[in-house]
TrEMBL record:
Coiled-coil residue windows: none
The protein's name: Cytochrome P450 4C1
Similarity comment: Belongs to the cytochrome P450 family.
Required cofactor names: heme
Alphabetical keyword list: Heme, Iron, Metal-binding, Monooxygenase, Oxidoreductase
Pfam family, one: p450
Organism: Orchesella dallaii
Keyword Heme appears in the UniProt entry: yes
């Protein structure tokens, strides 16, 4: 055997080609870095009118932001993506504790600063400057140009105007109009859960997963509240939720496989076909609903409480093109569909693993359901949900331990974090609540499930930006109030009707980062029907 000296060569690995390639790549990166530095200094100069020596200090502070060991070219890519899936959140929390209030990771040529102190989170989210509310290049590539101005679009004045318009359907006043549908969908959920957890012929308890049923329920409430129609009753409407999942799954595929962001590759991929089919099916349903609105608009729209203050009505009344109304509905429901059911499942898991808190919640829920002023014929009044204070604290604590979303920004202007540190224009900044919420400084014993952390006194003593599951400021979650109402009504209805247990343990449940932060496997539950004198129905 001639071994390596056989003279066999591949043209790609020919030494001189390889050397040239490495030389050109290194020179290009150096050039890019010097240009970045030049523009960074210029923008600091322009923005803050800083003197040369101050700029030097600011640069020094920026450079001294700690970072894990990075490799040439790929930066920290290996550390982020090659870690065992089971360690996703644990690893991130460890980094937070090791590196402190802010640290840097580098993915190829992109610097991402992770803000890990309430003060720096406040500086970003509450800056009030639209140039700090931009979502970043990845989002620009994911959502095509026609979507400019939509709520999900990275940023700009058009986004701001749309956001202002869409705030209305998400206010308590508007959501209250749709209270009957909250009850209707939770009743449907009870029936589905009963079916799944029917006690077997031998009287044995059934272990099952409930994430699909929770999803149908939160989707039912969100879609009816925002579109004004019970999709389950419409022809093809019942498939809407599944099609929405396809849409989000294919969009996330483009993040995992970045070559799918190149338009001509994307259009030839099977994911594009799946996306188009899903959009077509959902379009048919949505445009039929829009037609109904247009017909009713000629009669007396304001008297129909099913339709008033829904997203569709607000947009049509303000002259938004029906095609954009459709896209906006898809994106908003898609985001809600990814976050609320996962949060509901986790909150239920926390109550199943902490029976003492489950019991306290149930006592509160029973007393409200049994109060004729708060519940008529088993239907909760809208204000009754506000009275579920203990349940609310349990949900808040669950969202602290397992916040499902993060906030990503690309700075379009320098951002002052404190006296010493200014983040330059062009860098990406990330607020990761699962790192922030696990800091012993703000949440002593962070792994402990303790709903009393959300007692008014404790909240007052804590920095307000130490807890941001829905983000904060001009780009915070538009669906926060709706999500909290959904979580309360769903959990209250479950606790009213069932006793909840789980064979799973928190230390065995791993979390992974996908389009949201989910458990690796669905959690298993056992539900036992309660036989109280008056159940919810
Ligand atoms: C427990 C449930 C939920 C959680 C934890 C959650 C969390 C978040 C977070 C952290 C953001 C990012 C904000 C930022 O970039 O700073 C966000 C944005 C958003 N959420 Fe939620 N969300 C939830 C439920 C919902 C629901 C039910 C809807 C609507 C049906 C919704 C619609 C949106 C939209 C449209 C945005 C983008 C807002 C914008 O860019 O202006 N979310 N959410």
């Amino acid at each position: 055997m001639g071994g390596s000296s056989s003279g066999f060569q591949t043209p790609f690995l020919e030494t001189s080609n390889l050397q040239n390639f490495l030389l050109i790549t290194t020179l290009s990166l150096l050039l890019l870095k010097s240009l970045q530095l030049f523009f960074r200094k210029r923008s600091l100069h322009k923005k803050f009118g800083e003197r040369e020596e101050n700029i030097e200090n600011i640069e020094k502070a920026y450079k001294s932001i700690p970072e894990p060991r990075r490799f040439p070219l790929i930066g920290n890519w290996l550390m982020i993506f090659q870690i065992n899936k089971r360690d996703h959140l644990k690893k991130a929390i460890e980094l937070g504790i090791k590196y402190g209030p802010y640290f840097r990771i580098t993915l190829f040529n992109e610097e991402i600063i992770i803000l890990n102190s309430p003060e720096s989170v406040k500086a970003l989210l509450m800056s009030g400057n639209i140039e700090h509310a931009h979502r970043g290049t990845l989002m620009e590539k994911l959502w095509h140009k026609e979507m400019e101005g939509m709520i999900i679009y990275p940023g700009g004045e058009k986004w701001k105007a749309r956001r202002k318009l869409l705030n209305r359907p998400f206010t308590y006043k508007s959501l209250q109009l749709h209270n009957p549908c909250f009850h209707k969908h939770s009743e449907r959920m009870v029936k589905q859960l009963e079916k799944r957890f029917q006690v077997g012929s031998g009287g044995e308890q059934v272990i099952g997963v409930v994430d699909d049923i929770l999803k149908q329920s939160t989707f039912g409430i969100s879609s009816e509240t925002l579109m004004g129609a019970d999709l389950e009753k419409l022809e093809e409407g019942s498939m809407f939720c599944e099609n929405l999942d396809v849409l989000i799954e294919c969009a996330f595929m483009r993040v995992l496989r970045p070559w799918l962001l190149i338009p001509w590759i994307w259009r030839r991929s099977s994911f594009f076909k799946k996306t188009s089919n899903a959009i077509q099916a959902m379009g048919k349903v949505t445009f039929n609903i829009i037609k109904k609105y247009e017909e009713k608009a000629q009669l007396a729209p304001s008297e129909d409480s099913d339709l008033s203050d829904t997203m569709i009505q607000v947009m049509l009344q303000n002259g938004v093109d029906p095609q954009l109304v459709f896209s906006e509905i898809l994106i908003t429901l898609g985001v809600g569909n990814e976050t609320t059911p996962v949060s509901a499942e986790h909150a239920l898991f926390m109550l199943a693993t902490h029976q003492e808190h489950q019991e306290r919640c149930r006592e509160e829920v029973d007393s409200i359901f049994d109060n004729p002023l708060m519940s008529k014929n088993g239907i909760l009044e809208f204000d009754a949900l506000k009275e579920m204070k203990y349940l609310e604290r349990c949900i808040q604590e669950s969202l602290r331990i397992h916040p499902v979303a993060m906030s990503m920004r690309r700075l379009e202007a320098p951002l002052r974090i404190n006296e010493e540190l200014v983040l330059p224009k062009g860098v990406s900044v990330l607020v990761a609540p699962f790192i922030l919420h696990n800091q012993p400084k703000y949440f002593p014993n962070p792994e402990k499930y303790d709903p009393d952390r959300f007692l008014p006194d404790q909240i007052r003593e804590r920095h307000p930006y130490a807890y941001v599951p829905f983000s904060a400021g001009m780009r915070s979650c538009i669906g926060m109030k709706l999500a909290m109402l959904e979580l309360k009504v769903i959990l209250a209805t479950i606790l009213r009707n069932f006793e909840v247990h789980t064979p799973d343990k928190i230390e065995d449940v791993g979390f992974m980062v996908t389009s949201t932060i989910k458990t690796i496997n669905p959690i298993r539950f056992t539900l036992t029907r309660r036989h109280c004198s008056s159940n919810s129905g």
